[in-house]
Fold:
Amino acid sequence: MKLGDFEIQALSDGTFCLDGGQMFGVVPKPLWERKIPADARNRIRLALTCLLVRTGREDVLIETGIGDKYDAKFADIYGIGHRPSLLDDLGRHGLEPNQIDVVINSHLHFDHCGWNTRREGGREVPTFPRARYYIQRGEWEHALAPNERDRASYIESYFKAAEGQTTFLEGDQEVMPGIRVQMVPGHTRNLQAVWVESQGERACFVSDLIPTTAHLQYPWIMAFDLYPLETLASKKRLIPELVRDNVIVVFPHDAAVPWARLAERDGKVAAVPVGT
Structure:
């Protein structure tokens, strides 16, 4: 899709599954299951959507999916389906890992940074050898020393080997012309959304602030969120801007709608799918 002078493309690292109750927090199952049905294990199927931005000067990858550094037990628990994988999808767009110039992670949970590294000769190495990686410093520090509440969400081997290629950010800032990050705390303390802007056109990778279109309603907040009231405040700041400015919103985990514009209908915000 053209976005001003840029090209953007939603890429897939396949799908995985999480418990529906965890994904919707205090929302009762009879309500959320109308949006996304659960399987026999109460899991819902979720996308692993990443965003490729081609500026004409650099190829930028926002998020890297869940990767392939897991065993059969992990794959069964999370119902991982790699059809396609992120690297396959990059190849379909004519790109090899060594052609990616920049990688931006919204945060470092295992389903957002899995392809930051890969295994080679019994050790982890950066998957994108030429890329500069960007992450909030606070997120990196927490990922290396998580607490009991969120320890299962961070797997050091998924990101640590890229430390030598990583630039640590401090709050809202421009990463390069046309691409900037904005702090949207709640899911984690240092969660960042990524804005892409060219010739007056705007897209926003909202990450786990709004993981699916079902989470557009303000109180629909994940149980995974460490600071749910901050999630609520971040949504109330960001969503009106997304609606007002007709922004293309990229959802990381919606299996049916990877991106959409938002419109207010009967007092509620709805997703209006856009083409590719």
Q: What stands out?
A: The radius of gyration is 17 Å. The CA atoms of residues 57 and 92 lie 20 Å apart.
